[in-house]
């Protein structure tokens, strides 16, 4: 899928654009415009109080430069999402056509949603899946059409008190995805969501809820981008995934935010007996990313997996990782983290593996592999491993290496140019992650990494 690195196009106008800054009046206005039930407005208001009371996180990346009072927290480009690309306004359609969304929808996907700033602008789902009871809507549509399911699960895995950014999301959330897969249904092609921040000093706060019933299977893919602006934007999403017994979910993210975006995301899944949750997370772009997808392995035999990749360049801080919380017997988890630091960038792995008292016979393996391209760049690993039972096992491995001049010269002696030699080394390093991506994403990720790495050997 084609990602836009440097486009500055827009819709020209919005149906609604809030004043800058956050207030109770704004939260009430968002809820009113969406026609939400009273319980959701109440949760938003309590979350707003929580956000205002909690301090800015002092650990991890530096967030002191975020201008909270200058952000547009709600921008509504359309009144209702379109069901045909022909209906989408030309200025918006050109953005998604350049990214490749309509083309990918035809060739590779079971369903698509596209979000522009605060609202979904387009959505589709194959009729055969809809007939089987599969639901793929925006979160707003999910709340309207399936209020019982949303009320049952919304905020239960990531409560508003979990952290400051989760509280902010709960107060001003808009858009995101609602996915429901009935028991036993296998969704063979991926469901794709694409999130675009297209306004300067904008905030995007999508909320995603995925519920997969017993024995079902789904692969959800999201792509993210933003155009080039000199001022900072904020992306603070929350994702909650419920994986029932014997079900399997894969959640793949390829983000390519522009380098002024603060990407602060909370993602968490509960995994039932003999179920599997897989996170595949690829992070390019953004000024700061803080993201640690988590699995709560609460059923016997549950499995959690995290494959992550981060590329940190000039002025970037990629603070990423994973959490695996083992609460039941015979649970297993695996974390593979790959990072590349170049041109003075910083990439950090920050993770936690916890074996609870009931996690008898459980196992976890963590592998952190960092590649540093020059003396100005930095890589850090911050593991937090806790074992509260004597019959479980945790393995942790960390490697740091540097592309040396001798490696480049050796490959060049075999007929490669310096750029081709560098690309070959990088592709080999990232191959375990790229191999797990859908084909169109794997091709695009290789292209994006190549663009990021040009001239990076120092």
Textual characterization of the structure:
With 458 residues, the chain is an alpha/beta fold. The protein has two domains: 16-291, no CATH class; 405-458, no CATH class. Helices cover 25% and strands 36% of the residues. It has eleven helices and 25 strands. The strands form three sheets. A ten-stranded mixed sheet has the order 4-3-7-10-13-15-18-21-23-25. Strand 3 (111-116) and strand 4 form a beta hairpin. Helix 1 (24-34) packs antiparallel against helix 2 (38-53) and helix 10 (418-434) runs antiparallel to helix 11. The two termini are 30 Å apart. Residues 1-12 have low confidence and may be disordered.
Q: Would you count the extended β strands for me?
A: 25
Taking all Cα atoms into account, the compactness measure Rg is 21 Å
The fraction of residues assigned to DSSP E strands is 35-45%
Q: How many domains make up the coordinates? A: 2
Query: Given the helix and strand composition, which structural class is it?
Result: alpha/beta
Uncertain spans: 1-12
Organism: Candidatus Collierbacteria bacterium RIFOXYA2_FULL_46_10
InterPro entries: Fe-S_cluster_assembly_SufBD, SUF_FeS_clus_asmbl_SufB, SUF_FeS_clus_asmbl_SufBD_core, SUF_FeS_clus_asmbl_SufBD_sf, SufBD_N
Family: Belongs to the iron-sulfur cluster assembly SufBD family.
Domain SUF system FeS cluster assembly SufBD core: 195-429
């Amino acid at each position: 899928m084609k990602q836009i690195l440097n486009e500055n196009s827009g819709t020209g106008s919005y149906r609604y654009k809030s004043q800058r800054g956050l207030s109770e009046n704004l939260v009430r206005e968002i809820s009113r415009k969406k026609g939400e039930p009273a319980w959701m407005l109440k949760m938003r208001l309590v979350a707003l109080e929580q956000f205002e009371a909690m301090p800015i996180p002092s650990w991890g990346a530096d967030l002191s430069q975020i201008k909270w009072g200058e952000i547009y927290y709600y921008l509504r480009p359309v009144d209702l999402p379109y069901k045909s690309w022909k209906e989408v306004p030309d200025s918006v359609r050109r953005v998604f056509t350049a990214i490749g969304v309509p083309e990918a929808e035809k060739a590779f996907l079971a369903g698509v949603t596209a979000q522009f700033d605060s609202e979904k602008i387009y959505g589709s789902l194959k009729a055969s899946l809809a007939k089987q009871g599969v639901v793929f809507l925006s979160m707003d549509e999910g709340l309207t059409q399936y209020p019982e399911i949303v009320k049952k699960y919304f905020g239960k895995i990531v409560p508003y008190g979990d952290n400051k950014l989760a509280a902010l999301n709960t107060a001003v959330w808009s858009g995101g995805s609602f996915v429901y897969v009935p028991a036993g249904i296998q969704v063979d092609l991926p469901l794709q969501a694409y999130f675009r921040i297209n306004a300067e000093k904008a905030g995007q706060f999508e909320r995603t809820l995925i519920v997969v019933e017993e024995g079902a299977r789904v692969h959800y893919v999201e792509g993210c981008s933003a155009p080039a602006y000199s001022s900072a934007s904020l992306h603070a999403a929350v994702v909650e995934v419920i994986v029932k017994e014997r079900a399997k979910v894969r959640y793949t993210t390829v983000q390519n935010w522009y380098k002024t975006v603060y990407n602060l995301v909370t993602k968490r899944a509960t995994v039932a007996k003999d179920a599997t949750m897989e996170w595949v997370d690829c992070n390019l772009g953004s000024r700061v990313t803080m993201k640690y997808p988590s699995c709560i392995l609460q059923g016997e035999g549950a499995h959690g997996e995290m494959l992550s990749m981060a590329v940190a360049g000039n002025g970037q801080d990629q603070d990423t990782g994973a959490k695996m919380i083992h609460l039941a017997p015979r649970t297993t988890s695996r974390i593979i983290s790959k990072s590349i630091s170049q041109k003075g960038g910083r990439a950090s792995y920050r993770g936690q593996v916890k074996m609870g008292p009931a996690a008898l016979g459980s196992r976890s393996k963590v592998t952190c592999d960092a590649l540093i391209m020059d003396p100005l760049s930095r890589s850090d690993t911050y593991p937090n491993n806790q074992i509260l039972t004597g019959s479980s096992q945790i393995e942790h491995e960390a490697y740091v290496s540097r592309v040396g001049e001798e490696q480049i010269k050796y490959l060049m002696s075999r007929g490669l140019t310096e750029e081709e030699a560098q690309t070959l080394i990088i592709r080999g390093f990232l191959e375990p992650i790229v191999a797990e991506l859908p084909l169109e994403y794997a091709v695009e990720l290789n292209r994006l990494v190549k663009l990021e790495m040009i001239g990076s050997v120092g």
